[in-house]
Amino acid sequence: MNKAQIGGCPPLLFFDTGVGGLSVLSETIKLLPNAPIVYAADYAGLPYGMKSEAELAARVPALLGRLVERYKPVLATIACNTASTIALDHVRSALDIPVVGTVPAIKPASELTRTGVIGLLGTRATIRQPYVDRLAADFASDKILLRHAAPELVYAAEAKLRGETPDPDVIQQALSGLLDQAGGERIDTVILACTHFPLLREELAEAAGRPIQFIDGAKGIARRIAYLTKDMSWPVDSQDGIFVTTAELADIAPYRSAFEKYGITQFEKL
């Protein structure tokens, strides 16, 4: 039996560059509290938002192939907007299990906005993707979508999960880059288009200084995972999860307590 098949049950695999995928994992655990979990963080490749499309289109499928071979998951979730918008089709072609991606929550944002002006915070790679253009054309063609790349928020979220206080200047600069654009004063809904960013929701809301809805796709992704695994017989009791990193295990020591809150207590190197 594969070591990840706790109680004879294959796990759910979550893949991200770092801790951002916890925003998706937390919603999934609410729906599937006893599903075994393997959380993989490609810390050796962080940050994805600064890499080229060609690099990620090669790197992500290769890593997920190795992870699937080792842990035999029933389903894989790419809990990273950048990786999903670039490599999702490549991964699905390479793997023979269901693969759930993470895309910017443009459709729900277009339904929530009252002013018709939506903000989108993401990495540089995410905000320039044609996929985002298509989502905007399909679901928000009658809205104004303002975008801003805020890769520094990734590091602020990582710092928060290490127990540190995120730099308030980083939070403010990210918001200013969005709200100070022409029409930005009318933004009432902001899409957090990186799974790291919801971990900073409270800090972003406070820095905004006015009522703004900050939304992401984590709940929808969790519902999709639950639907695709509806025929699974999960263990009666919750199981200890596994964290696997592409970097050195010593490098993720500061994050252990954060992951233990999600039932992840075993730490391995890929």
Low-confidence spans: none
- General shape: globular
The share of residues in helices is 40-55%
Supply the number of helical segments. Answer: 11
> Strand arrangement, largest sheet?
4-3-1-2-9-10
Strand content: 15-25%
Summarize the structure.
This protein has helices at residues 22-31, 53-71, 81-94, 106-112, 124-127, 130-139, 152-161, 168-179, 201-208, 218-228, 256-260; strands at residues 12-16, 37-41, 75-78, 99-100, 117-122, 144-149, 189-192, 213-215, 241-245, 264-269. The protein is α/β, with parallel strands linked by helices and 270 residues long. The mean pLDDT is 92.
Key attributes of the depicted protein:
270 residues, six-stranded parallel sheet, 10 strands
Topology (SSEs and partners):
Blueprint: E1 12-16, H1 22-31, E2 37-41, H2 53-71, E3 75-78, H3 81-94, E4 99-100, H4 106-112, E5 117-122, H5 124-127, H6 130-139, E6 144-149, H7 152-161, H8 168-179, E7 189-192, H9 201-208, E8 213-215, H10 218-228, E9 241-245, H11 256-260, E10 264-269
Parallel strand pairs: 1-2, 1-3, 2-9, 3-4, 5-6, 5-7, 7-8, 9-10
